[in-house]
Amino acid sequence: MKWELVCGLEVHVEMNTRTKIFCGCTTEFGGAPNTHVCPVCTGQPGALPVLNRQVVENAMMTGLALGCDITRLTRFDRKNYFYPDLPKAYQISQLYAPICTKGGIEVTTEEGKKKFIRLHEIHMEEDAGKLVHDPWTESTLCDYNRCGVPLMEIVTEPDFRSAHEVIDFLTKLRSTLQFLGVSDCKMQEGSIRADLNISVRPAGGDKLGTRTEMKNMNSFKAIARAIDTEARRQIETLESGNKVVQETRRWDDNKDASFAMRSKENAQDYRYFPEPDLPPVYIDDAWLDKVRGSLPELADAKRVRYREQYRLTEHDIGILCQSARLCRLLEELVALGTEPKEAANWILSEVLRLCKEAGLDAGDLQLDAGRLAHIIELLTAGKLTRASARQALEAVFADDADVDAFIREKGLLVERDAGAVAAAVDQVLRDNPDAVKKFRTGNEKVYGFLTGQCMKLLRGKADPKDVNAALREALAQ
Ligand SMILES: [Zn+2]
Asked: How far is the CA of 79 from the centre of ligand 1 (A)?
């Protein structure tokens, strides 16, 4: 029998607001355990939550960018469960009236077709703390710094039919969130993590099979592996005449396999009820219009503009528009007078190479656009050779060096000394009679060697254009 995968996602996104969702504690990552806490986020008796307005606006922006309906009267609900990472013994979340419904993201299937993945809803909630297992004392320690950090949970319909579609969806979602500036989406710090709901059914069927859930996945590679492995396990289970059990499974990346953790809870197990400590939130037209007006330009609009206004190639646009940070750098360079194509070339070749060598995600790039623009300007004016320009960029990348001071210190400025260039060309022709003979009998390949020798004699300080002109002229004689 031919089987098909049916997969849905619940994506948790940590927002990058300065403070927590219901109190004024900082959301900064790290910090000594239990130092970013107060009576509200640790659930002390009598402490009352106050909703962070920015959290609502971030969720509204995300919903608007993803084509969702915004719920005008949105409410919070209490999700009750007892676990040591949750000092209140309940989580404030949304069940009955989440802030956004519907909407979706278009992905590309493995066959290259366009496909729309529908969203079920987006809701706001608070994050839980972190448990640290200490093998020395065989005890578990609680760190509540993360308690109350605002989360958005983005829930899809079970529309995915392959791991490829899931990864494409997550890539586009992450880039949209970064363009919106609502989350830094650092997967390794867990600021974006996905729960996978996976089932299989006979290909083309319309009934859903029993699903299993895999929680807190925070690497694209592990997600793709986990989906394929779990689908195969379920197919083998069904083909051997057994039933798939509804349960939560844990993915072990080292073992490349998943293991049963516990049977899955249903909504009624959480005894949800309306949160009595928070009034409903009414979003009126004025507020919605204000947030809509503050939406930044997103990747799709940038793609069109880069093509029409900047005249960049589809290939370059494709890479640039995956990263909000690279788009910002490009636009800053253009605003400083760099020609768009030249700016894109520098980012895609030199800047990305330096990022890769430093093991740095492009999203974390710290580079002053003004300094790079200055380097490109000096190169275009013939005051720097390309090799020296690269060297200057490396210094700026490594420790934000002052470009002019660096060039002066290293003596990189091109010297416009026609006499020195002529003398160098002369000497190279004299020292390399064989190469000259080869060139004059039609072997163009030795030309590069001769230029290299000239540049070496001039210690790289001449403008290659000047050297070229002088060398061509001397060889023609
Ligand atoms: Zn607090």
From this structure: 19
